[in-house]
Amino acid sequence: MERKSKKYEIRVEGKDSAFDSVQILDSSTSEKYARQFFSDDISLYESCFIMLLNRANKVIGWGKISQGGVSSTVVDISIVCKFAVDTLAKGVILVHNHPSGNCKPGTEDIRITDRLKKALGLFDCSLLDHIILTEDKSYSFADENW
Predict the structure, then answer these.
(1) What whole-number distance in Å separates Cα of residue 105 and Cα of residue 94?
(2) 3-state DSSP assignment of residue 131
(3) What number is the average pLDDT over the span 39-53?
(4) How many CB atoms lie within 10 A of CB 103?
(5) For residue 129, what pLDDT is reported?
(6) 140 phi and psi, to 5 degrees?
(7) How far is the C-alpha of 99 from the C-alpha of 96, rounded, in Å?
(8) For residues 99, 101, 103 and 105, what is the CA-based torsion angle, rounded to 10 degrees?
(9) Could you give the CA distance from residue 83 to residue 95 in angstroms, rounded to a whole number?
């Protein structure tokens, strides 16, 4: 029995993305862009997305990493790194929400930020920020000098 393998490729698609490409200048620009990924479910369950940036901090892609329950979601480092390598990104911004309304990072948020920063560094890619969103607030690791 012959086993078929999956094919992975790097390609650039046309400008038919659901979201415009913008230059990220600060955490407020990141937050505004990232809020497009969430809808009324921002207060229901955690979801995690990444924004992929080129060297000029222009968004070249984005991806949904996971969707979880009311108090957690899984961030698989290898999936984030795959997105970064496939798009030749030089910067990544991790974004997730806290349905509780409390945007203060928890122990796991801090741990995943540190692990992801180290992993992306192996590919000459930087974790530029980790943003936590609630319905009406946000927390930026970069603004807090993490």
Answers:
(1) 13
(2) strand
(3) 93
(4) 18
(5) 98
(6) -115, 120
(7) 10
(8) -60
(9) 14
Tens digit of each residue's pLDDT (9 = 90 or more) over 57-113: 999 999 999 999 999 999 999 999 999 999 999 999 999 999 999 999 999 999 999
Whose CA is closest to 93, among 42, 121, 57? 57
Number of residues that this document lists for the chain: 146
73: region left, alpha or beta (phi > 0 left; psi from -120 to 50 alpha): beta
pLDDT digits (tens, 9 = 90+) for 104-131: 999 999 999 999 999 999 999 999 999 9
Q: Name the 3-class secondary structure at 118.
A: helix
Residue 103's closest CA among 135, 73, 75?
A: 135
Which residue reads 């590919």 in tokens? Answer: 123
Predicted model pTM: 0.87
Distance CA 133, CA 101 (A): 8
38 by Cβ neighbours in 10 Å (0-12 / 13-18 / 19+) ranks as: middle
